[in-house]
Specification:
The complex is a heterodimer. By secondary structure, chain A is of the alpha/beta class. Helices cover 35% and strands 11% of the residues of chain A. A seven-stranded mixed beta sheet of chain A has the order 1-7-6-5-4-2-3, with helices on both faces. The longest helix of chain A has 37 residues, at 322-358. By secondary structure, chain B is of the alpha/beta class. The longest helix of chain B has 39 residues, at 332-370. The chains are: A alpha/beta, B alpha/beta. At the A-B interface, helix 1, helix 2, helix 3, helix 4 and helix 5 of A face helix 1, helix 2, helix 3, helix 4 and helix 5 of B.
Chain lengths: 478, 451
């Protein structure tokens, strides 16, 4: 157990970080109103470093080992990108500086916009959204304003039952009403089912491609046609774009709007929950609705363009998570067209390999071939009284991170596994060994799984009591 | 080059195991007419050295404010950042981890968030703070959605004196839900027009936003405004600068219902405006309506203390379209930066940042006041920012100052034409020295003086 930073010291020690005040002003002349304490710790610099190193030692992370969270694309984060992005020439610029002083930054944004257009077959991209869900929201705002502009009152967005929860949530914030469409027995959307749902009320069909089962919607061409025939737009949630680089350009096959997750597909780190970046791309008929400002090129100079009467407005205080763009652009430059194509091809091989081997010990309801991920299930271990949660927790004891569990909702006891392209065969083989061992333990000694994890910094935590009686802040007298 | 470790030999063996003869067989679910033909038109591939070279060239096209004498603010400030912040953030245990879904192996991230929540509660004097939103503007937008949901009303009053770019965010977030935003003008003193506020407040009003200090740097009469707002039955949302809270009355003490703000000044680099850190704090009674992730302390099966994400039934992965917000990935690493920043400076160091910023802003204001012919738009009741009105148009003044390595402020004429073409928002932090202030004052005297 690690004491909180507050318990490590609230009085004494304080370092010198800012210069001596060479402009002293009588405090009576300053707006000083506050009497109460701020409640900040005082533990000195070494105290701070030791505290955070102690916390660091309790985290699992990609540099430690495989992180097979489905739909999260936990790939290696190239260290050179981190080094580049730390340059003061990128970190130290203020968003209100003159365009002439930030030409390098504007060029970088412009180039990244262009490259994402090329990768996705879209006509324009905005880098403003700060995360994937933020990109979805922006995409739905664009759809909302597009139909307002056309004077069409379309309220319905069709979302498959396998979708991420962020999809219906983003939809409803924009004033649309999400309608769920069931996946068929192959885990895909059936065009005939869709036809029955789509009508003149339908604004958008929102799809993840490949879907959250790791399957490429075989009838995607027909699905898009049905939507367009009804005057609706088709949105692609690009969370799974790691399967499609250099294989499919969504804009070229008819998607109208999509978002990417730079912190998934383009290797920028997740930071324990952000900052991410969720750029939104659209085809020509929707370009005017993108957030402002856009970065444009005039001759050999780069500039912001605020001109767009139809724009939805803005979704970020400034231009988005610029520091994340730096890393993503470095990644694209390093890999190039061939490299990006190899990313997806290897991600697909790794996923199919793992599906084949994990499938020997666990159920796989939707057999392959899969794309970059697949969904297994521990339903076959139910007979021993073992759940997916038990399997996940036991994995932690073996020193590997668990897959995404209990998602997608349409698979019972789901284990959603995405190995990513940067893991090598040897690592995958070891993961399979562990999964096999756990399935054996389930049969021979299920309590081992019920009690797992036993070797982690803490054991299973009481989430129910936290929800009933939450403790959100440390207080001195507790 | 794609950071792939498998060899051709590995791939061959893997394809054999899968039971296919080639990768193309695995791609059969993708109809061939939908596939990319040929290569994408992209830069690269490049060696690591070439990538570094390319970025060195891009870097050379930037003149970072942090290396100049910067008086730019308006939400993003040039504060000193202790080395501990960058050091901790460069540890891959933190930056290469995911959202803490498996709590047992994410205690580092979870405890860091819990401590950050506690620090934000301390600064704001509120009961609960969350694990971050994207930035100040979206935090304000989320607070509006939250207040409207609590009150089941759809009118919100917002000060006219906020940046146009923030108004554009509020527009994008609220038109779908048909929320009506009414802007309350500012007085000649640059403060919220209380008379107009009273006129606009009615039984349909869900909430009022108070910016403290406001966009012009001026300190509002928070207690008074809070009373007026609460009398009408609306909620008070305070939009605050976290550094100012070391010296100004914390929003919890004037009964704010929701507190939001931009946390960049808590140890984050300016970074061309992103990533930033939106914070939100509220009263316990409203927590189930609040957006975003929350971390709670709890115990494990052995009774040891630990931390988990909690109240997830508010969130999108459980509630789907009925969630309080769609937020998933937020600004985790920026939370860590803010926590390390506050912990490193400690109670006294943090207060010193606020006091010095205020003292230096006051010193510059006084220096300029002493010059004959200089003008300010609104009095001297400011924290660390004020509005200067040089005698020449803002662009001319700023360009002249730039020649001497001084970023003299943000022109306000675009957002607020009523202030005239020369108004400039000037921010002063503890990082500026007396010498910098003297240089600024000399520039005003030379080119911006005279009424």
């Amino acid at each position: 157990m690690t004491r909180t930073i507050f318990e490590k010291g609230l009085d004494g020690r304080s370092g010198k970080y800012i210069q001596e005040n060479d402009c002293p002003v009588d405090e009576a002349l300053l707006p000083i109103q506050r009497i109460s304490s701020l409640g900040l710790p005082r533990i000195g610099e070494q105290g701070v470093i030791r505290h955070y190193m102690e916390l660091a030692s309790k985290n699992y992370h990609i540099d430690k080992g495989i992180y097979p969270l489905g739909s999260c694309t936990m790939k290696y984060n190239p260290v050179v990108n981190e080094e580049i992005a730390r340059d003061n020439a990128f970190c130290g610029i203020h968003p209100a500086q003159n365009e002439a002083d930030v030409q390098g930054a504007l060029e970088l944004i412009f180039n990244l916009q262009e490259d994402l257009c090329e990768i996705c077959g879209m006509d324009s991209f905005s880098l403003q959204p700060a995360a994937g869900a933020h990109g979805e929201l922006t995409g739905m705002m664009i759809a909302r304003d597009y139909f307002r502009d056309r004077g069409e009152d379309r309220k319905i967005v069709i979302v498959p039952d396998s979708a991420h929860g962020t999809n219906p949530s983003s939809v409803s914030i924009c004033g649309f009403k999400p309608i769920t469409i069931k996946s068929d027995d192959r885990g895909m959307i059936s065009p005939s089912d869709l036809k029955e749902e789509v009508n003149s009320e339908t604004a958008v069909i929102m799809l993840t491609l490949p879907n959250t089962l790791g399957l490429f919607e075989r009838n995607i061409g027909e699905i898009i046609e049905i939507a367009h025939d009804a005057g609706a737009l088709v949105y692609m949630d690009g969370a799974n774009m790691n399967a499609l680089l250099g294989i499919v350009q969504p804009g070229k096959i008819g998607f109208d709007i999509m978002h990417l997750n730079l912190h998934k597909t383009f290797s920028t780190p997740h930071g324990g929950g952000g900052p991410g970046s969720g750029p939104v791309g659209v085809r020509k008929h929707l370009s005017d609705f993108l957030p402002v400002p856009r970065v444009v090129k005039n001759g050999d100079k780069f500039a912001f363009s605020w001109e767009s009467e139809k724009s939805i407005g803005k979704v970020h205080s400034y231009f988005g998570n610029f520091n994340v763009f730096v890393k993503a652009y470095a990644y694209i430059c390093r890999l190039g067209s061939e490299g990006l194509r190899d990313v997806s091809r290897n991600a697909i091989i790794n996923a199919n390999y793992l599906m084949k081997l994990v499938g020997k010990f666990y159920d796989v309801e939707y057999p392959g071939p899969c794309m970059h991920e697949f969904v297994a299930s521990s339903v076959n271990l139910k007979k021993y009284g073992v759940s997916t949660l038990d399997v996940a927790k036991r994995l932690l004891d073996y020193g590997v991170h668990a897959p995404t569990v209990y998602f997608p909702l349409i698979v019972k006891e789901a284990l959603m596994i995405e190995p990513v392209e940067t893991e090598k065969k040897e690592t995958l083989d070891r993961f399979v060994e562990i999964m096999k061992k756990i399935s054996e333990e389930a049969a021979s000694n299920p309590d081992l799984l019920h009690e797992a994890p036993i070797s982690t910094p803490v054991r299973r935590l009481d989430e129910a009591s936290a929800a009933r009686n939450p403790d959100f802040r440390w207080r001195e007298m507790e | 080059m794609s950071y792939i470790q498998n060899t051709n030999q590995d791939r061959k063996k893997m394809l054999e195991t899968i039971g296919v003869s080639s990768l193309d067989e695995l791609l059969t679910p993708v109809p061939s007419e939908l596939r990319v033909k040929g290569k994408l038109n992209l830069p690269g591939p490049m060696s690591e050295a070439e990538v570094v070279g390319r970025f060195e060239r891009l870097a050379a096209g930037n003149y970072p404010a942090s290396s100049m004498k910067s008086f730019l603010g308006g939400g993003i400030y040039d504060h000193v950042i202790p080395a501990t912040v960058r050091y901790v953030l460069s540890r891959s245990e933190f930056y290469t981890s995911y959202t803490p879904y498996q709590a047992e192996v994410s205690q580092g991230t979870l405890q860091a968030i819990y401590e950050y929540q506690s620090m934000i509660c301390g600064l704001t004097s509120m009961e609960v703070a969350n694990a971050s939103l994207y930035d100040g503007a979206t935090a304000m937008a989320e607070s509006i959605l939250m207040a409207c949901s609590i009150k089941r009303k759809d009118k919100v009053l917002v000060p006219e004196a906020i940046a146009k770019r923030i108004k554009a965010v509020l527009r994008a977030y609220t038109v779908g839900k048909k929320i009506k935003i009414e802007y309350i003008p500012f007085t000649e003193a640059g403060t919220l027009d209380i008379k107009k506020l009273k006129e606009a407040l009615d039984s349909e009003t869900a909430a009022v936003i108070l910016a403290q200090p406001n966009y012009f740097g001026i300190i509002e009469e928070a207690e008074n405004i809070s009373e007026i707002v609460h009398e009408s039955g609306a909620l008070l949302i305070s939009y605050v600068d976290p550094v100012s809270l070391a010296v100004l009355t914390p929003p919890g003490e004037y009964d704010s219902d929701i507190v939001v703000g931009e946390g960049q000044s808590l140890g984050l680099p300016q970074s061309f405006g992103g990533p930033l850190l939106g914070f939100i704090a509220t009263k316990k009674e409203y927590i189930r309506k609040s957006p975003g992730r929350l971390v709670s302390g709890t115990v494990d099966v052995d009774g040891n203390r630990g931390y988990v994400m909690t109240l997830q039934t508010r969130e999108q992965h459980i509630r789907r379209e009925k969630a309080t917000s769609n937020i998933c990935t937020n600004e985790g690493l920026c939370v860590l930066a803010a926590a390390v920043y506050m912990a490193t400076l400690g109670e006294d160091g943090f207060r010193e940042v606020a006091v010095q910023s205020a003292a230096k802003a006051r010193t510059l204001y006084n220096m300029i006041s002493d010059l004959s012919g200089s003008t300010f738009l609104f009095g001297d009741n400011f924290f660390q920012e004020f509005v200067l009105k040089p005698s020449v148009p803002a662009d001319e003044f700023l360009n002249e100052a730039r020649k001497e390595g001084v970023l003299a402020g943000i022109p306000l004429g675009g957002d607020f034409p009523q202030l005239g073409p020369s108004a400039v928002l000037v921010a002063v932090t503890e990082k500026r020295s007396r010498e910098d202030l003297q240089l600024y004052s000399d520039i005003v005297s030379r080119i911006g003086g005279g009424k």
